[in-house]
Design a protein that fits this description.
The chain has helices at residues 8-27, 41-66, 81-89, 95-125, 131-159, 163-172, 180-219, 233-243, and strands spanning 2-4, 67-69. It is mostly helical. The radius of gyration is 31 Å and the shape is elongated.
């Protein structure tokens, strides 16, 4: 899809001016000896070639400078935390998204810290070969996947959010240019984007809170409580949360 490039006309005028000056310089009598209809066939051919090339330059410049192809950004393959952070960083410069994007990055950092703390505590309570340790470890890994799945969903929404259009729209809300019904529909559309992003962030905060609760419950375990460790309320809640992963895909 082609869209109008607002800065194109000024640049195109510069191109045209350059082409005109070049043609005048070359075709002016007494300068380079090139003339159309002159005594030499070579002169005539050179002059015609110059005019044709000049026309092509102006036509190509008109197309490339007045119009630009709309680029739709798609979320690239994301494998590591750094991949996610790099993709989120694309939107840190957008004022209306900066706070939410910063929170998403912070959530991943906190997830890493809580995961490391939990595994260290578990290693002090259980042998790594024990079933209880493996069960806890699996749950923590699955919850981490769910948090990143929420981040990926947020990135999918961000990839189709047009920040420039949003800024332009908010700048004309009170101009009287658009009817109230249109403004309501447009606001509803943008609010849907923001609601989805904030919903994903809220879900991640819930995950991080449950991990804190799990850490507290593990710290309360006595030496004879290992058999009931997997029945802890927070553990059950996390297991149920993991079971809902398909709802986020």
């Amino acid at each position: 899809m082609l869209i109008l490039n607002n800065s194109g006309p000024v640049k195109l005028l510069g191109v045209i001016a350059g082409v005109v000056i070049l043609n005048i310089s070359i075709l002016s009598p007494g300068l380079l000896g090139v003339a159309i209809g002159g005594s030499s066939t070579l002169e005539t051919a050179t002059g015609i070639t110059l005019l044709v090339v000049s026309l092509l330059i102006v036509l190509y410049g008109s197309y490339t400078l007045l119009f630009k192809r709309a680029q739709v950004h798609t979320v690239p393959p994301l494998e590591t935390r750094d991949d996610y952070i790099a993709e989120l960083n694309r939107y840190l410069g957008v004022r209306v998204l900066k706070e939410d994007v910063g929170l998403a990055i912070d959530q991943m950092m906190r997830m890493d810290k809580k995961k490391l703390t939990l595994l260290n505590v578990l290693a002090g309570r259980f042998e790594r070969e024990e079933l209880s340790f493996r069960k806890f470890h699996t749950v923590i890994q699955e919850v981490e996947k769910l948090l990143y799945l929420n981040i990926r969903s947020i990135l999918s929404k961000l990839s189709v959010f047009d920040a420039a259009e949003f800024s332009q729209f908010t700048g004309t809300i009170n101009s009287g240019r658009f009817p109230g019904t249109f403004i309501q529909k447009k606001n509803a559309l943008f609010n849907e984007y923001f609601s989805h992003i904030k919903g994903g962030l809220a879900a991640n905060e819930e995950i991080l809170l449950k991990l804190d609760q799990l850490l507290l419950e593990i710290s309360r375990l006595g030496s004879t409580d290992y058999d009931t460790a997997l029945e802890m309320p927070c553990m059950q809640e996390l297991t149920a949360l993991i079971g809902q992963t398909k709802l986020y895909q």
